[in-house]
Specification:
The protein is mainly α and 196 residues long. The protein has one domain. The protein is built from eight helices and no strands. Helix 6 packs antiparallel against helix 8. The radius of gyration is 21 Å and the shape is globular. The two termini are 37 Å apart.
């Protein structure tokens, strides 16, 4: 659906430019932004490779498994419907740890696998409580190192690309706590409505 919306907007813009006589400016903006996008992607790839390499070192050193062990009691309380040794738990933990380090691209495949595993548990076409909670927490995404944002700031020659780390930690911590609170509030409300 989103693809149709973007395609529709692009077509409307091109038709408007044709009737408005600004097709030359549209072409110029199109090619300059395409060139800028390629440059930006190359800059992002180098930083993401660096952080993924650090994640691999952390994995080999046992830091990731230590973090998984540390977070497991908290995660099992957030997702009481999922058995503790179910594969979904592993994917959820991996997703959260990747998001902690700002590796959204690395977290996405694990998030998709976690959703697939949770769908198998619920055996329904509707989103389960665990799926909703996972989506809410993933959207708020507690981040310790905003890798992608730092990479973009480096790409655009920021004087202090890492100065956003502190505010990012505070902002994502607050949004994650609030997201969990809202999720639990709606869950309790749903349960009360079922009892009535």
């Amino acid at each position: 659906m989103v693809n149709y919306i973007w395609a529709g907007l692009a077509i409307i813009g091109i038709i408007y430019a044709m009737f408005n006589g600004t097709m030359e400016e549209v072409n110029q903006a199109l090619f300059s932004s395409a060139q800028e996008a390629v440059t930006l992607v190359i800059g992002l790839v180098s930083v993401l490779i660096f952080w993924l390499g650090l994640m691999r070192i952390a994995e080999k050193a046992g830091i990731l498994s230590m973090l998984a062990t540390l977070f497991k009691p908290f995660i099992t309380r957030l997702f009481p419907e999922i058995p503790k040794d179910h594969p979904a738990m592993g994917y959820i933990l991996s997703n959260f740890i990747a998001n902690l380090f700002g590796l959204g691209n690395a977290a996405t495949p694990m998030g998709i696998k976690a959703m697939e595993e949770m769908k198998k548990i619920s055996n329904s076409n509707h989103a389960s409580r665990s799926m909703i909670t996972f989506l809410v927490i993933n959207t708020s995404s507690l981040t310790l190192i905003p890798t992608t944002i730092i990479a973009i700031r480096i790409q655009y020659d920021s004087a202090a690309p890492t100065e956003i780390v502190g505010t990012t930690i505070i902002a994502t911590f607050i949004t994650t706590i609030f997201a969990i609170f809202v999720d639990r509030m709606f869950h309790l409300r749903r349960e009360r409505n079922k009892k009535k």
